[in-house]
Amino acid sequence: MSRLPVARIIPASHTPRTKDGSDEMKLLIVDDHVAMRRLIGRVVSDMVSEIEECGDGAEALDAYHRCLPDWVLMDIEMDQVDGITATREILLSYPRARVVIVSKYDDEQTREAAQKAGACGYVLKENLLAIRELLERC
User: Fold this and answer.
1) What's the pTM?
2) In what order do the strands lie in the sheet with 71-74?
3) Which of 1, 20, 22, 133 is the 20 to 30 A CA-CA neighbour of 108?
4) Which residue segments constitute the domains of the chain, with CATH numbers given?
5) Residue ranges in the chain whose pLDDT is less than 50
6) CA 95 to chain CA mean position, Å
7) Per DSSP, which regions of the chain are E strands?
């Protein structure tokens, strides 16, 4: 299996920034730290029309269903349900969902687990500006 590159989309056909091709982008941020959710939100606030948040992978599928975002930015390490499991659950219900892992972990095993779960990208928390790059390119 090829390695999931940091801050890159897994090669596939080009997809528009939003599901319907509009400029209105909705984002779901899933992270157990409120401060990190807010920081990520500030980094991309001028690029999105709507930001939803939740604090655990256990809430992620319901939040996805409720807001149907164009992108999900998913932490890995959370209390009840980790981000890898939550990513897998979202993609089982919504196969066209685009989930990007946003993590402090920079190891091949974690990137591989994210890719196997269906994540389309991986960004390190130490480089949150890479989220902007990723959203601009896709």
Assistant:
1) 0.85
2) 50-54, 26-30, 71-74, 99-103, 121-124
3) 133
4) 26-137 (3.40.50.2300)
5) 1-16
6) 14
7) 26-30, 50-54, 71-74, 99-103, 121-124
